[in-house]
Amino acid sequence: MADEYSANLAIIGGTGIYDPELLTDRKEVKLFTPYGMTSDLFTLGNFAGKKIAFLQRHGRGHVIPPHKINFRANIWALKELGVKQIIASSAVGSLREDYKPGEFVLTDQFIDRTKNRFDTFYEGGQICHISSADPICPSLREYFSKYAEENHFPIHKKGTYVCIEGPRFSTRAESKLFRDWDCDIIGMTLYPEVVLAREAEICYVTISMVTDYDVWAEKPVSAVEVLEIMRENSSNFKKLIMGAIPNLPKCDECNCQHALENALA
User: Fold this and answer.
1) Which range, of 37-46, 72-81, 204-213, 234-243, averages the lowest pLDDT?
2) Residue 201's domain spans which residues?
């Protein structure tokens, strides 16, 4: 990949998080992958001395439902661009009274409840048993934890994310079950994005915004409610992510970029 079409940092999210005017020397790039089309074109540019690639996970105009996102194509393309670190953003429902709408969560664990997603690059010929014991880059998570605290963002430093297939929301019985499992937040996009990043040996951190209480709270969730909370808090979300970028660590001490050393059979 030519240097002008490369990046060392990627942001995966939506238009509420990313402002294209923040990047200089912007260009849009279309990448072809062995896994089909990516969610959208990649916007490449410079910000705070870093070469950044931005991807809208659901496509321009938010047109791709979560169960139809081509996660393998997206992560493969980022690897091809030379990306070493990914900052992912998402909207989630809360499974706890004290994780309130408008607050942020740094996920550290997940439970996969998806059904039909392609979740590995290794489908035959060579077997990969990637470690998922601690799926989020510890260096990036610790950095964002300290940055958010120092800058007074309302953030929870840990959270178990249960990822459901979507596009429907949970039944009340499912929501109460996930609470019994000690899950903290619920969403539709973390898996398999996080494990594919690990297979690609890319450091990955996800920052979630709580947009609602899931239906365990006896109040049906609506898409309108979710979008309204996102709109009200998008400025804070943008400030948290973009404000942290200038001093982002290089992750020299984590093992994410050596994840395949003991995983291939």
Assistant:
1) 234-243
2) 3-258
Q: Residue 98 catalytic?
A: no
**Contacts with 235 (C-beta within 8 Å, 6 or more apart), sequence order:** none
Q: Three-state SS across 107-129?
A: CCEEEEECCCCCCCCCCECECEC
Choosing from 40, 108, 184, 212, the catalytic residue is 212
pLDDT tens digits for range 19-37: 667 788 999 999 999 999 9
Tens digits of residue pLDDT in 151-196: 999 999 999 999 999 999 999 999 999 999 999 999 999 999 999 9
Task: Decide if 212 is catalytic.
Answer: yes
Residue 210: which CATH number? 3.40.50.1580
pTM, to two decimals: 0.94
19, 25, 214, 252: which is the annotated catalytic residue?
214
Instruction: Return the structure tokens found at 200.
Output: 């690609």
Say how many domains are in the chain.
1
Kindly state whether residue 263 falls inside one of the protein's structural domains. no
Q: Is residue 121 part of a domain?
A: yes
